Amino acid sequence: xxxxxxxxxxxxxxxxxxxxxxxxxxxxxxxxxxxxxxxxxxxxxxxxxxxxxxxxxxxxxxxxxxxxxxxxxxxxxxxxxxxxxxxxxxxxxxxxxxxxxxxxxxxxxxxxxxxxxxxxxxxxxxxxxxxxxxxxxxxxxxxxxxxxxxxxxxxxxxxxxxxxxxxxxxxxxxxxxxxxxxxx
Length: 184
Fold this sequence. Notes:
Layout: H1 5-21, E1 66-67, E2 70-73, E3 80-81, H2 94-106, E4 111-117, H3 124-144, E5 152-158, E6 176-183
């Protein structure tokens, strides 16, 4: 009897474990709908659905450059570059943020979109967080220069648009914050 106790305990644990793995729950149906998880949306496949996406030109560029109620005007202000794995604004790059603050002071109706980017090193999640920290650093610095936070929008693109397989020095072009003017 003494030698059979471990066998009975092993069999009992195996039965408990296997019985827990066999039950499956059916998908929950939405209020009276025959479709699960689509909130009643049925796609007929004829291509007439309006998904709210912005149209693109034949070369893939956006034809409508909007950000909420604003129109994006890129290229007016210079990009601010960061060191590898850093979200601190270097002293040499602060003059670019001063230029942006001066522009916003001269154009009180304009706002600014601060887009944070990263190189391809690191995970997507880490790079999105780093891009957010970079956008936050630039935004905070603009705040110290007298720009109201209501005029600053922040967005992290992380490494979504980064050039892959570049060396760390070549990837410096992706470690940046783009300053995009927003006009109503």
